[in-house]
Amino acid sequence: MIFTEENLQSLPSRHRANLINNCCGIRTANLIGSVDEDLRENLSIFNSVMHLGSDPVLIGFILRPLTVERHTYDNIQQTKFFSINQIPKDLYTEAHQTSAKYKKNESEFETCAIEPEYFDDYTIPFVKKSNIKIACRYESEYNIKENGCVMIIGKIEMIAVDDSGVGQDLWINHEKLNSIGIGGLDTYYSVKCMDRLTYAQTHQDSKSIYGPQKTSS
Ligand SMILES: Cc1cc2nc3c(=O)[nH]c(=O)nc-3n(C[C@H](O)[C@H](O)[C@H](O)COP(=O)(O)O)c2cc1C
């Protein structure tokens, strides 16, 4: 199938959304935890969390336009902190449910039966079952003028990752940690590690360093 710009515009909006939301590939699956200034908890699913660089250690995500109440955004404005929690396989239905529009005073942890975890030094809640939990301090935001979305940038302050999925060189194996991926806004994929390759050099084949093709340890 080939879709031109005109075809895309004439598609029924739901079909267009399915195609556009999925065509860039499988996206990251995270729950973002926050509190407001009265320490009321909030938890929401996001598929737009992205790595922004490791020096300084930055992470970002995209928020929909601020034309309706956005609790995650309001909380981050108030307290400047948020947690990013990788969604594990056995939590995807509860995680999906956090996307419903709950009232400000209703904690998704309670309503969606997701157990919170608190760390010393942080007032923000984390997701206990998550195998990768990240504490972020709000750094800045950028308005995306084309559509009114907002890119939030956070500085990573702490990472808690389950030992079972971390190699000696601190490589994270997402298959071992039961991480998942998201297609569009409704499809959940499990993750399988195919291979890990050496740094690519010109005119030289990369070597397998993990997985079925492995040539060295
Ligand atoms: C799979 C999935 C991924 C989502 N990803 C995002 C996202 O990246 N950005 C966003 O603004 N909303 C995203 N949403 C919608 C939010 O989860 C939803 O608007 C939620 O109610 C926000 O809650 P809050 O107002 O408590 O922050 C996603 C929803 C689903 C089901």
Description:
With 217 residues, this protein is of the alpha+beta class. The protein has one domain (25-192): Electron Transport, Fmn-binding Protein, Chain A (Pnp Oxidase, Chain A, Roll). 17% of the residues lie in helices and 34% in strands. Strand 11 (180-183) and strand 12 form a beta hairpin. The mean pLDDT is 96. It binds flavin mononucleotide (FMN). Flavin mononucleotide binds next to strand 3, strand 5 and helix 3.
Number of domains in the coordinates?
1
What would you give as the CATH superfamily? Answer: Electron Transport, Fmn-binding Protein, Chain A
Q: Which stretches of 5+ consecutive residues score pLDDT under 50?
A: none
**Termini Cα gap:** 43 Å
Short description:
The chain is α+β, with helices and mostly antiparallel strands and 217 residues long. The protein has helices at 5-10, 13-23, 71-79, 92-97, 108-111, and strands spanning 27-28, 30-35, 41-46, 50-54, 57-63, 81-86, 116-117, 126-127, 132-143, 150-161, 180-183, 187-190, 196-197, 208-210. Bound molecules: flavin mononucleotide (FMN).
